[in-house]
Specification:
- By secondary structure, the chain is mainly β.
- The chain has a single domain (4-745), classed as TonB-dependent receptor, beta-barrel domain (Maltoporin, Chain A), CATH 2.40.170.
- The protein has three helices and 42 strands.
């Protein structure tokens, strides 16, 4: 884009100023993650080698984020990772409880339909979340987060075509202890979190955890006369740790999560769309609005409602066999969900949905990891995944008639994977990985096809794929590692979860793949106080699954429908930098930079269903969603001792992201361009906090933090979606927020 160089120059200039003023790292006001940082060595567990590895020894692009970095920003959930890792975009999706639209290196996904699979896997304590619902989990009890960029199918149980956000929560300490925290902020924000540990100090330990977050929302609904867009998340559970011997470890976890709120959207409809042609005078001020300040005044006449409850259970067993560890992870998740949403965003009844869903997923992973022989280490594993959901949806149309539809869907996945490091010399290492995946899906869609009962239509299909990975790394010295790698990512085929015609139920879409090539360097300077990691990548996106709007066959209840097709191929390449510098005692800065260039090679939308690319059906000049050309952040922390029992932490972070598209729907009158109403404008963000920690004794402290987010009150579009010429809705980015956190730990 034309403003890329200006954005980058502003980023670097502002970052330099901030680095001179402050800096960021892992402040000492809270319990430091032992696994995340020891003696300037940041370690990762994501390669599943049995033991943790230094991030500087791993031949792949990975960013490690500590909970202290998130806490210093007044973070709510993993959405706040966005500016801390290169090439990562996370936008909330209001249509799904706790759902996120996550894009990593331009590989993105946002659909809340549970028939689709995320492109970026969120893995919590080894358990893959099978949909994007409830991905944006609470950040309080995290031990650390690892963002692994690029395909990771040979390392994790479930396929991850774009990358993995690997979350490890704290383990029971086996000793008596309590950590509790409360935050209060504007827009009615209240957070309460607690983790209570106890045990015998040897064999047995248990952890109880609780969190409760409420937020009133920042939209002013003038039709209902109230603030809307509220959300709440409450969770509670416990983990038991049993270590009967040095070789055996058993972790059992049970938890319940409840999510509520009212999803609010802004009207972005304009002249030419059906809703703006309705002869209601009030609609004149609700159409043809801008996508910045206007977003925060909304007109919906139906207060949305979110009701979500999920029960989760997992058992992790690790057994050491010499230099190897045999691991088993068994997990079950069951949820009930109801979302009522006024999608048209207008003061008249035009398009409201009522979606009730029941979801269940079960997964079993077995793996053997460690050093198999001298100079030969790695992981080999088996994985089984099953999920099923039932959806009952009612869509209320302008006539007042409710159009019913039902979906019953089941997925079964099987996989075998392996990834090994072979040390050819003390300096040269080759890594080889492979995965075989098989996916089976069954699908029944019951749709209203005219007078009479629902028409039930079924389909089933299966797909399999072999995906390899290879990398070579060379260590020039203890402080310099260079590597090159190739990996293929695979995302299963499936069925159209919103099918509204027999023909679209009868046809499945095929898998998509990404071939990713990467070159990188891991470097350290000044006795490990400065870390600079660089990566460049090239990705070829094949048979890309895209949602397209096309005509329906004669006799269908609607003249058009949204279906998923293997409609495109794309090329994405870019460069990334992760930097951390401890300039002197107590003063540290971290920074990240991501550069992306993404474009479609071809994108054919068969609008008239004749199987031929006619004039006006070439969409290859559109922009891919959530692929900002530049994303940059610099942050810092300065810790000052106050006597022998107190510290002050000054914390600041500046980030900037260039503009990017959130919709691939065509602009009115220009089939080859994205609708401009879906443009997420370039955004600068400044956040800061000041924390006082008072040490009361050994392992006992209290702290008070004042924080501010988006201090410049940058406002604009978060995402938008035009709906088939009927209407367009959107959401806004969160405006300035501020608050106070108080906590203690012993």
């Amino acid at each position: 884009m034309s403003n890329n160089s200006q954005v980058l120059k502003r980023s670097l200039a502002a970052g330099t100023i901030l680095s001179l003023m402050a800096g960021i790292s892992t402040p000492a006001f809270a319990q430091q993650s032992e696994s995340a940082e020891e003696d300037n060595i940041i370690v990762v567990t994501g390669r599943l080698r049995g033991d943790s590895e230094s991030v500087q020894d791993v031949p792949l692009a990975v960013t490690v984020v500590s909970p202290e970095q998130l806490g210093a920003q007044g973070a709510l959930n993993i959405e706040d990772l966005e500016t801390l890792s290169p090439s990562l975009v996370i936008d909330p999706v209001g249509a799904g409880p706790g759902a996120g639209a996550i894009s990593l290196r331009g590989v993105s996904f946002e659909d809340v339909e549970k028939s689709f699979e995320p492109t970026v896997g969120v893995v919590i304590d080894g358990v893959f979340i099978g949909t994007n619902t409830a991905q944006l989990t609470n950040a309080f009890d995290f031990a650390q987060i690892e963002v692994l960029r690029g395909p990771q199918g040979t390392l994790f149980g479930r396929n991850t075509i774009g990358g993995v956000i690997n979350v490890e929560r704290t383990r029971p300490t086996k000793e008596f202890g309590l950590r509790a925290e409360a935050s209060f902020g504007n827009y009615g924000r209240e957070d309460y979190n607690a983790v209570f540990n106890f045990g015998d100090g040897d064999v047995f330990g248990a952890k109880l955890f609780f969190s409760d977050r409420t937020f009133d929302g920042f939209y002013n609904n003038v039709t209902l006369g109230q603030r809307t867009g509220s959300n709440s998340v409450r969770g509670a559970g416990g983990t038991i740790l049993i270590e009967p011997s040095d070789a055996l470890e058993i972790l059992l976890t049970a938890e319940v999560t409840k999510i509520g709120g009212d999803p609010a959207v802004a009207s972005l409809s304009q002249t030419g769309e059906a809703i703006c042609g309705v002869p209601v005078p009030a609609l004149a001020e609700q159409c043809n609005r801008n996508t910045r300040e206007d977003l925060y005044t909304v007109f919906g006449n139906v207060l949305g409602d979110v009701q979500f409850k999920e029960d989760s259970y997992s058992a992790r067993i690790n057994y050491d066999i010499g230099d190897l560890t045999l691991s088993s992870i068994t997990a079950l998740k069951e949820s009930d969900e109801l979302v009522i949403q006024d999608f048209d965003g207008a003061s008249i009844s035009f398009f409201t949905t009522n979606r009730a869903q029941q979801y269940r997923q079960f997964s079993q992973e077995l793996r053997l990891a460690g050093e198999f022989a001298q100079g030969f280490s790695g992981v080999v594993g088996l994985f089984y995944f099953n999920n099923e959901y039932q959806l009952q949806q009612g869509t209320t149309l302008p006539t007042g008639f409710t159009l019913p539809a039902e979906t019953d869907h089941e997925t079964k996945s099987y996989a075998a994977f392996a990834d090994f490091d072979i040390e050819l010399t003390d300096q040269l290492r080759v890594s080889l990985g492979a995965r075989y995946s098989k996916d089976e899906k069954e699908y029944t869609r019951s749709i209203f096809a005219g007078p009479g009962p629902l028409l039930a239509l079924s389909n089933e299909d299966d797909w399999s794929q072999f995906t390899p990975r290879v990398s070579v790394d060379y260590r020039f010295s203890d402080d310099i590692l260079v590597y090159g790698s190739y990996a293929r990512g695979y995302r299963s085929g499936g069925f159209n979860g919103r099918a509204n015609s027999p023909s679209s139920v009868a046809v499945s879409f095929d898998p998509e793949t990404v071939d990713s090539f990467e070159l990188g360097a891991k470097t350290q300077f000044a006795d490990g106080r400065v870390t600079l990691n660089i990566a460049g990548f090239y990705s070829r996106y094949n048979d890309k699954q895209e949602d397209v709007v096309q005509a329906t066959p004669p006799g269908s209840p609607n003249p058009q429908e949204t279906v998923t097709l293997n409609a495109a191929n794309a090329t994405i390449f870019g460069a990334e930098i992760d930097m951390r510098a401890e300039l002197f005692e107590g003063f540290t800065i971290t920074s990240s930079l991501g550069l992306l260039d993404a474009s479609y090679d071809d994108f054919f939308i068969d609008v008239n269903l004749d199987g031929i690319q006619d004039a006006g059906e070439d969409a290859s000049s559109r922009d891919l969603r959530r692929t900002p050309d530049v994303s940059f952040s610099i942050a810092g922390n300065y810790e000052v001792a106050l006597g022998s029992d107190g510290t002050i932490n000054l914390n600041a972070k500046y980030s900037t992201t260039s503009s990017y598209q959130t919709t691939i729907v065509a602009a009115p009158g220009n089939f080859g361009q994205n609708d401009p109403r879906g443009l997420h404008q370039a955004q600068d963000d400044l956040s800061a906090s000041i924390t006082y920690t008072h040490i009361l004794g050994d392992d006992t402290e209290i702290y008070v933090r004042a924080f501010g987010r988006n201090l410049t009150d940058s406002r604009g579009l978060s995402s938008a979606l035009p709906v088939a010429g009927l209407f367009t809705f959107g959401t806004g980015i969160a405006p300035r927020q501020y608050g106070v956190t108080v906590g203690f730990e012993f």
